[in-house]
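Checked the freezer inventory, then went back to the computational side. Two predictions to log before the end of the day. The first one is the construct we discussed on Monday; recording sequence and tokens without edits.
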Amino acid sequence: MRHITALLAWIAIGFPAFAVEKPNIIVIIADDLGYGDVSCYGAKAVKTPAIDKLASEGIRFTSGYCTASTCTPTRFSLLTGTYAFRQKDTGIAPPNGPAIIKPGTETLPSILKRAGYATAAVGKWHLGLGDPAPNWNGELKPGPLDIGFDHCFLLPTTNDRVPQVYVEDRQVRGLDPTDPLWVGDKKPSEDHPTGITHRDTLKMDWSHGHNQTIHNGISRIGFYTGGTKARFRDEDLADAWVNESNRWIEANKERPFFLYFASQDIHVPRVAHERFQGKSGLGPRGDCILQLDWAVGELMKTLDRLKIAENTLVLFCSDNGPVLDDGYKDDAVEKLGEHKPGGPFRGGKYSVWEGGTRTPFITRWKGRIQPAVSDKIVSTVDFSASFASLTGQTLSANGSLDSMNLLDAFLGQSEAKGRDYILQQDNGSGNFGIRSGDWKLVRLVKRMKTQARVSKDERPEPKGTHTLYKLTEDPGESRDVAESHPDVVKRLIGQMDSVVKSDRSRP
């Protein structure tokens, strides 16, 4: 019926059917997945058949970007269409952090809800809950349901931060009121077991930082007690997200729907289900890549089973580039072999080098998108404007401040241009990168002190504040050519400053 309505609209107004149709939309966002971590982007040591199939049936972008090289700011910009540096407190959200996206903010789900969509968020949230802090034993408000989602089933923070419970809509799922949940940033008692005091009991040892409350044999960031019946097993997370998503898709298949599927894979602690453990040969990190690929495949099977794949636009991306040692001794470095998580690019998570924000990026709409490989520059921040255009919605004057309408590029239209430039940020240190065409300018005003390792052989950061690279000749950003191209440096500094200092980049 939806196809017939779209066809009649096309005949009446003379525009392509996709411009007025309302397909289902699924955004699948992986966590810490690098450009080189999937086989359709060049990985040899690990195979990802489901993601590869998605790419073979759609568009595989070679210049697809998230906006930031850490979790929270990228997720903020994806859902709001606004760069995270424009709002305070968009760094990595702490366990007891309040809701970062405030009620009344225009968001991707609120835009699609105006267009008549059912909306749901399943998986990792990490954008805070409540105000001024989460009420873990009561109503978790504000949250996703206050910014456009009809339903949510969430990992509230990250799997390496407490608490290890599911949040469903406004409450912790399965919480026993006689065993209240307490979350804090200090030890609740002197005898509270931690990764330091009870290190010999851990099934996965920590390398730095992740040594506070122990859950499931793994120590985490932060402290919590109680909520015993509500706690999950890390091994079961992927299955929980897939099962809930499939249930919700089936319940809403008769109307247009938007699903934000946010996997925790391959974020630390990397603990795949037992059926994937030891299968990759790359240790837990590789096993979690296999699990992520499985989850993608399961969602696609559901679309096929329900016969709605040809009316569903699927987008696959990552929240930032790769990291190997991010706090746990899980053999990610030792078992890496010749595998290159960042592909040909420099850096990874926490950096403004290409490896920090250039990630796998795929769009598929069976019967509408012709299979192709595209070098157009596209970004997750552009989902708001693009999907508003697709569904006939108008962006508010004060919302989606940096989102560009790249619908033609996402759908593979022959005349599509993509972005002229893309701005890249880290976790809010003031470091930025800007890519414009073949050129990339890097601004380093603060040297990040982190014990995380993003590759086997990390190069020292340059001493200068501004460095310039020609990506077509030097994708690994190894040769600074700023001195020989002062005009390009000046132009890109001006462009970067204009975006950063203004209150918006969307016209």
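The second is the one RB wanted added to the comparison set:
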Amino acid sequence: MQSSLYCQAEALLLRPEFGYYSIAHSRRSGEDSLNPVKIGLLGLGTVGGGTYRVLIRNAEEIARRAGRGIIISHASVRNPDRVPGLGLEDVRLSDDPREVVNDPEVSVVVELIGGYDDAFELVMRAIENGKHVVTANKALIALHGNELFKAAQDNGVMIAFEGAVAGGIPIIKSIREGLAGNKIEWLAGIVNGTCNFILTEMREKGREFNDVLAEAQQLGYAEADPSFDIDGIDAAHKLTILASIAFGIPLQFDRVYTEGLGTVTRDDVIYAEELGYIIKHLAIARKTDGRVELRVHPTLIPERRLIASVNGVMNAIMVWADALGPTLYYGPGAGGEPTASAVVADLVDVVRTLTTDPDNRVPHLAFKPDQIADLPISSIDEVETSYYIRLQAVDRPGVMATVSGIMGDLDISIEAIIQKEPGEGETTVPLILLTRRVREKAVSEAIRQFKHLDVIVGDVTRLRVETLT
């Protein structure tokens, strides 16, 4: 009789509606393991809707991996017009996200509303209510992560944020866990699809920056106000997070040197190719001599590098680790279901650890909180790399000697020179210089002196060069 009852119980536990939860684990756990974990979802926009669809479509597979079912029981929505198309008949809907955060039945809050202030207040409230949090909000983590992670530690809950960087690419988990046995030396990433789309179109079709930007806005790749993307702020948020996980340092968004695409012209793209390089907008973090470089800017990289072939709106991050060497992580950096893929993976991780001792969970920033090292961040003047410099020079003898003399006096070695012939009726010519490795401070001084020469006309363009080796 006892055996028969046990078999019946086992059959019930293996039914999909009960989350495929194992008998062995149900004995070990003190909680009611037959019930699925209830999720509160803040935001039903592109990523929120994608998260709901993935959870419904792949419910069986997700439950097998998590050990329990995962369902959205309560959601907040700003735009009710989205609701009919998602099929949310079994989900309680609220127009106030605080109702979701304060719902006692909700175990995990998924924050997908974006922004700073409201998201911070809601996530902090969820933590104080003892709820775990999953977010794809890179700005929230980059700006307030230190405070949020401390609060989460104090309250014994987790904050998972894989979707905050590079959409569906599992880069955070790869660095935090897959490379845990390595010292990360540097990482460089194409982490903003809008910038990558613009540079790809400029190179492949010879288009001007403003024309491509307008198309990116029409296609939905760029916002009506695109400054967040093209000025490098979005990439700087993501670099802040990646660097903290790679090097075990506090989140320090305000220390990231940030430069957008505004200085890059179609001519620069062409000249870079003539020199054997492709221009990409890179987020770079490098640890050298006990200091850390954090910088986002347009960068020339050798065309033979695999990352140079990453085009369109795709993202890619290259990581150099001492034991493994170089690895490249590639995929969609945005979009509803790609980002939802990361959000749901975080949910699975959270559900797996609901009964785990908080001290034995994977740390938010890869290193134990008491092992976070506040290493000094290098100023951009201290960075050492190679440089592409473009001048518009008066077409007369001796100009090259004058320019070379200034660079020689500053110990700047020239690797290559391109001097174009003047067009018909033109009195100035483009002069392109490629330097060997030198400190930024010396290049800045050279540019300052160039601007005072009467044979140099207009602005001087400086782009950094990285060989990624």
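For RB: Residues 1-31 have pLDDT under 50 and may be disordered. The two ends are 68 Å apart (CA to CA). Let me know if you want it refolded.
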